[in-house]
Amino acid sequence: MPNNALVIVESPAKANTIKKFLGKGYKVVASVGHVMDLPTNRLGVDLDDGFAPEYVVSRGKKKVLDQIKKDAKTADLVYLALDLDREGEAIAWHIREYIAPVQKNVKRIIFNEITKAAIQGAIKNPMEVDMQKVDAQQARRILDRLVGYKISPVLWQIFYYGLSAGRVQTVGLRLVCERENEIEAFVAVEYWTVEGLLGAANGELPVKLIEKKGKKVDLKTKEETDAVVADLRKASYQVTSVERKERKRNPQPPYITSTMQRDAARRLRFSAKKIMMLAQQLYEGVDVGNGDRVGLITYMRTDSVRVSDQALGTARDYIASTFGSEYHPDKPRVHKTSTKAQDAHEAIRPSDVTRTPESLKGTMAKDLHALYELIWRRFVASQMESARYDTTEVMVKAGDYTLKANGRVMTFPGFLSVYEEQLQEEGGELPAVSEGEKLELKNIDGTQHFTEPPPRYTEATLIKDLEDKGIGRPSTYANIVSIIQDREYVEKQEGRLSPTTLGRQVWKTLERFFPEVFDTSFTAQMEQELDRVEGGEFAWQAVVKDFYGPFKESLDHIDEKKALLKSDLQEETDVKCEKCGRNLIKKWGRNGQFLACPAYPECKFSRPLTEQMPSVHIEGKCPKCGSDLVAKTGRYGRFAACSRYPECKHTEAFPIGMNCPREGCKGKVVEKVTKRMKVFYGCSAYPECDWASWDKPAEEECPSCGNPYLVHKSSKSRGEFLRCPKCKEEFAGE
User: Fold this and answer.
1) pLDDT of the residue at 615
2) CATH architecture of the domain with residue range 190-249+392-450
3) Which of the following CATH numbers is that of domain 138-186+455-566: 3.30.980.10, 1.10.460.10, 3.40.50.2000, 3.40.190.10?
4) Which residue numbers in the chain have pLDDT < 50?
5) Parallel/antiparallel/unpaired status of strands 45-46 and 36-37
6) C-beta separation of 420 from 228 below 8 A
7) Could you tell me if 174 and 165 are in contact, meaning their C-beta atoms sit under 8 angstroms apart?
8) Which of 608, 664, 665, 614 minimizes the C-alpha distance to 633?
9) Shortest CA distance to 535 belongs to which of 262, 340, 330, 703?
C-alpha cells in the first residue's frame, strides 16, 4: 500500500464519496470533467498527416491541470479513477500525458460502483490506460469535428450564422422529420368491429366477432356491419370450445441506459437530460443522513444487462427473507445481453439491495428518490419468480359466424409484487361455461373506428428507435434528443417531439448535400466500426479515412447545388416590395423567416413576416380579452402575443414554462432582452420581484443543497451541463 498516492476522478461529488473508503495515504482530487479537447477556433485535425488531432487544454482547465501535475509530482503513485466508458478513458489518457514529465508511475483503476469493496478491489488490481478504448473515442471526436466544422458553414450561408450540424444528432432530427412527413401523408381508413354480450348459466360472457365461414372478418363500412349485426341478432349461440391454460409473465431484465431513460420518462415524466443528471448523482454519491455519502447505484452508462454473482446472491437473499423463497426461481435469472453490448459493464442496479427505497425516504431530493426507487424495483423484480395466470379462451358459434371471449385471472403475483408493468388488457374473469352449452343473446352491436397515424416521438420512443437502429451509444442518447431541442430544430409540445420550420428546412438542406453522411444505416455502421476499433480490429485512422473520402467528395460538389437549394428555400409571396414593386420572398435570419426583396443588394427593402406558420399556443390567457396567448418572434427575439391580433394587440415577455423560484413569489420566469440585445431571464412580476438570471434556469431542485432551481451552462469541451447557482455544484447535462 503506497504511503502517498494520488487518486484522480471527474467530479468533486465522486471525490467526496471515494475519500472515506481510502486511508490517510491517499489524496483524492477531481478534474471536473474533460481537461483537453480539440481547439475551438480551428479544425484541429491534420488532414494531411493521418488525421492527427491537435489537443489543447480546455478553457478554464489550465489551473486544474497544473494543480494535478503539482500533486502528481510529489506522489509515489497516481491512480486514474475516471469513469469506465470511452470518455472516461480518454480523460485518463490526457491526464497521464500531461503529468508524464513529472510522474511515470501512473495506473488506471476502474469500478462499476462506488462502494468500499469495489474501490479497494480496484486499488488491488490496477491496470494500464486502455489505448484501444482511447482510440475509439478519438475516432468519434474527430468524426464529429469534421462534420460539425465542415458542414456548419454551409448552413450559415443558406440560413444564418450560428446554426450547426452534428454527425449523430442530425440523424435524430431526420427521424423526427420523417415521422412528421408520415403523419402528414397519412390517410385514415374506416373499419368496424362487432362486440356483444351473451347470457350463460353462470353469468354473462363478453364476446367479439372474429370470423365468418372460417375467414377473418374485415368490415369496412356501416352497411357491411349492419348486415352482419342483423344476421347475428337472429342467430343461435353455442359454445364450441373452452381452452384453459396457465400462462407466465417473466420479469424484464435490469435497466440499461436506454431502458432506464424510456421507463423513467414514461413513469416519472422526466426528460432524458434530467434522468441522466439524477442517475449521475445516485452513482457518484448522495448524502443519506449523518453526513454519510453513499454511491447508491452502479455506473449509469451501460448497454449490458449482466449482473455480478455477488449482487445476484444478495438480491436472492433479500427476496427470500422479504417475500419468501417461493418468490425467486431455483436458479438466478441470467438475462440475455445484446450482441452489440459491452458486457464488461454491468446493468444499472442498486449498489446495495438492502438499502431499500423506504429506508431512504426523506434523506434526499424527491426526484432523486423516485429514480432510485424505480431502479431498485426493476432490479429486484428481475430476479423474482414469474407472475402466473389462469387464462380462458371460449369460442362461440352463431350460424356462419365465430365469436371469441378471453379471460385471465392472476394466481400468483411473482415479480409484480415489486414492479408493476403496463399489461395489455385480455379480459377479467369469465363465467364458467362448458362445451356445447347454449347461450342467450343479450346485446350485440357494431363500433366504428379509424386507423390512426403513427404517433409523434416522445423522448423515450426516439431513444428506443435510435437504439433499435444502432445509432448512438448509452453515453449519447440523452444528448441527441436534448441538443436537437436546444438548437430549436425540434420542439416538445405535450411531451411529443415535432420539427420546427427551421428544423425541417435544415434537414432538407443536409439531405440534399450529404445523403450518405446522415443515412441511418451508414451512421449505425460507423458505430459498429468504432466498437471494432475498441476491440482492436481496426486502426482509428482507417475508420476516419473511410468516412472522409465520400464526405470530402460531397463537400467538393456543394457549390454546384448551393444556389439551387437556396432558391428552393426562398419561397415567393404575393406581397409587393414597397420600393420596387417586385414580389417579396421569404428568407431566413437569426430570428426566423422574414420578407425581403429578391433584387437585393440593389433593393434592400425587408419587413417582418406577419403571416407566420400556425401559431404555437402557450400557457396563459390574454389579460385584456381572455383569449389564448401564442408564441411570436420579432426583431428582438421571442415574445407572447394575443391570438386575436390585430383585434387585440396585447404582448408580453415570453414565458419559459417555469414558476419564479423566489419563495413566496407567484410570478413566472420570462425571457427578456437588454438594450444591447443580450438575452436574460427575469420574473414577470417585476418590479415587485427583481429575481433575474443571465443563464436559462431549469425547474429542477439541486440534489446537493436543495436550491429550487439549476441553470443551464455550456462549454466547448463539456457540452451542455447544469450548475447550481447557490452551491456551484455541477451536473452532467447529457
Assistant:
1) 55
2) Distorted Sandwich (2.70)
3) 1.10.460.10
4) 611-614, 734
5) unpaired
6) no
7) no
8) 608
9) 340
**Looking at residue 415, what DSSP letter applies?**
G
C-alpha distances out from residue 129 to 33, 83, 89, 94, 282, Å: 17, 12, 7, 10, 26
- The residues spanned by each domain of the chain are 5-129, 138-186+455-566, 190-249+392-450, 257-382, 570-608, 698-734
- Separation between Cα atoms, residue 324 and residue 658, nearest integer Å: 47
pLDDT value of position 191: 97
Dist. CA 721–CA 723, nearest whole Å: 7
Residue 503 in contact with residue 173, Cβ under 8 Å?
yes
Contact 524, 471 (CB under 8 A): yes
Query: What does the block give as the cell for 591?
Result: 430570428
Rounded-to-integer distance, Cα 345 and Cα 298, Å: 10
**From the CA atom positions of the chain, what is the Rg in Å?**
31
CATH fold of 257-382 reads: Topoisomerase I; domain 4 (1.10.290)
CA angle 574, 577, 580 (to 5 degrees): 130
pLDDT at 391: 96
Class of domain 5-129: alpha beta
Half-sphere exposure of 674 (CA within 13 A, CB side): 8
For the record, the C-alpha cell of 121 comes out as: 478491489
Pull the grid cell for residue 553: 467528395
Q: Active-site residue among 55, 98, 299, 548?
A: 299
619, 655 in Cβ contact below 8 A?
Answer: yes
Tell which residue, 465, 474, 467, has the closest CA to residue 345.
474
Q: What type of residue sits at position 617?
A: H
| Structure-block grid coordinates of residue 554 | 460531397
Q: What pLDDT was estimated at residue 617?
A: 65
Q: Do residues 285 and 295 make contact, with C-beta atoms less than 8 angstroms apart?
A: yes
CA 703 to CA 277: how far, in whole Å? 10
Are 364 and 373 a contacting pair, CB within 8 Å? no
Residue 299 among the catalytic residues: yes
CA neighbor of 283 nearest in space, from 348, 358, 356: 348
Please give the angle made by the CA atoms of 274, 277 and 280, to the nearest 5 degrees: 150
How is residue 139 written as a grid cell? 475516432
Say how many CA atoms lie within 13 Å of 374 toward its Cβ: 25
Reduced to 3 states (helix: H, G, I; strand: E, B; else coil), residue 714 is strand
Listed in order, strand segments (DSSP E) in 71-229 are 77-80, 106-108, 190-200, 203-212, 215-216
What are residue 325's phi and psi, to 5 degrees?
Answer: -65, -20
**Residue 523 three-state SS:** helix
DSSP string, 50-67: TTEE--EEPTT-HHHHHH
- Spacing of C-alpha 58 from chain mean position: 27
The whole-angstrom separation of Cα 684 and Cα 700 is 19
Q: Give the CA distances from residue 347 to residues 296, 400, 461, in Å, rounded to whole numbers and listed in that order.
A: 14, 54, 21
Q: Where are the alpha helices (DSSP H) in 399-476?
A: 459-468
Amino acid at 402: T
What 3-state DSSP class applies to 421?
A: coil
Short-list 586, 607, 611, CA closest to 598: 586
Handedness of CA 378, 382, 388, 389 (dihedral sign): positive
- Find out whether the peptide bond into 687 is cis, omega within 30 degrees of 0: yes
Give the pLDDT confidence score for residue 654 in this predicted structure. Answer: 85
Q: What is the DSSP pairing of strand 77-80 with strand 106-108? A: parallel
Question: Which among 701, 732, 728 has a CA at the least distance from the CA of 719?
Answer: 732
Residue 201 contacts by C-beta under 8 Å, 6 or more apart in sequence? 431, 433, 437
- Residues pairing with 412 in the sheet: 388
Q: Which of 345, 297, 336 is nearest to 84 (CA)?
A: 345
User: DSSP character for 393?
Assistant: E
Per-residue confidence (pLDDT) for residue 613, from 0 to 100: 43
CA distances from 145 to 51, 53, 167, 400, 545 (A): 11, 10, 9, 67, 14
138-186+455-566 and 190-249+392-450 agree in CATH topology: no
